[in-house]
Amino acid sequence: MLDGIKRWLGSTPKAGAAEWDGVAPWAQSHQYGFRAVPDEGFVVDGRLGATAWRLEWGPSQRPYIQGHEVRLRCELGLGSDLQAMVMNRRLAEQMETSVYEQFVEGVQTRIDNQTPPEMRWLVMFQKLPGSEIAPLRERWVALASQKTWLKEWLQGPLTASLAALQVAEDLPVVLMIGRGRLMLRASQPDADVAQLQAWLRFFECAIREARRVAADDPDSLSPSAPSSVWQQSALPGSERDK
Question: For the chain, which residues make up each domain, given as ranges?
Answer without folding.
Answer: 12-93+121-230
